[in-house]
Amino acid sequence: LEDLQDAFDFCYKVHYQPGEDRSRDPQYTRQLQALQAKLQNLDQQRREVLAQMQQLLGRSETLRELLQQELGDWRERQQRSCLGAPAETHLRPLETWFTELGQGLFQLRQLLRALSDLRHKVTYERDPLTAETPLLEQRLQEQLTDLLKSAFVVEQQPSTPNTFKRPLVLRTGSKFSARARLLVRLHDRNHRMEATIHIDRDPPKVKGFRKFNILTSSSKTLLAGDSPQEGLVCDFQYLTLKEQKDSRSGKGSKGTGESPLVVTEELHLITFTLAYAYCGLELELQTSTLPFVIISNNNQFSSAWASILWFNMLSSDPKAQQFFSAPPPAPWPRLAEVLSWQFESVAERGLSQDHLLMLAEKLFG
């Protein structure tokens, strides 16, 4: 395109002489006809390039929708694995696909910028670049933004280093860790990307809902390994929670006027926020953990874990912090499956039908 455009521009400046009546000069007429042919060829080539761009953006949109489905499946597997289910939760395949698509979209972005530069050098009436390039840039920007926002995920849910393999139950004063990953492995090594964490950024409007502070550093630089295969990770380790004391309420009080949830049914969220920048594109990316329960002593552990089981079995909204204000009942087949996962996670073997029948008789008579 650039070569065609330069050839046309050169001929235009050499041969076209507006304001002079040279209609009777056959050589000038031939030069104008050749110039018109060059312009038509240039116009056709521009339209073909734009059509290819449209086609590529359509294909990338289809691929992005497929990746969203794959990512949704991974989230479900991660949620099941938190309950003890045997599930494959490696992110490497997804990371590879997200990165490839991100690279393709950023390359298209560079090409569109090059097309804009060509348009500024040479344009004409009904120039397709003038009409279509801004729309393509907007469509591409939307695709890149959606891809990057969905690519920021919680790789490791909040968990304490215990032997029970039971995440999402944290204890005040005890250390825990959580890790987020950006699946698009594209970053500028000269630009430092900072990730921060917040607990209960938008807390539910419930009187008596406890508030907590994260005592250790709540910001971290996004780590990129020496090789691009190691990914982009923000790993928060040795975090500690401390409850904020409400000076207006008495000792042990959780507020008056409403019946707030018991401690083991109070659900909390940690939000990761990342200031992303690459090739002139700057975005704020966010992702949240699954809801977790915060206890203050080990006697509350069983009840807290029951809440985690119940929520992840039955909630369709991963951010429903008021789930236990009206918890739904669980069908026995679903609960039986989850109980079997529990045994398998610690005993390497699930429950048989006889085992489940015995538990059902104990529960229901």
Automatic annotation (TrEMBL):
The keyword NADP does not apply. GO terms for cellular component: cytoplasm; nucleus. GO terms for molecular function: DNA binding; DNA-binding transcription factor activity. Keywords: Coiled coil, Cytoplasm, DNA-binding, Nucleus, Phosphoprotein, SH2 domain, Transcription, Transcription regulation. It is found in: Cytoplasm; Nucleus. Residues 157-295 form the STAT transcription factor DNA-binding domain. Pfam families: STAT_alpha, STAT_bind, STAT_linker. InterPro entries: p53-like_TF_DNA-bd_sf (IPR008967), STAT (IPR001217), STAT_linker (IPR048988), STAT_TF_alpha (IPR013800), STAT_TF_CC (IPR015988), STAT_TF_DNA-bd (IPR013801), STAT_TF_DNA-bd_N (IPR012345). Residues 1-143 form the STAT transcription factor all-alpha domain. One of its GO terms (biological process) is signal transduction. Residues 321-365 form the Signal transducer and activator of transcription linker domain. Residues 25-70 form a coiled coil. This is STAT2 protein. It comes from Neopipo cinnamomea.
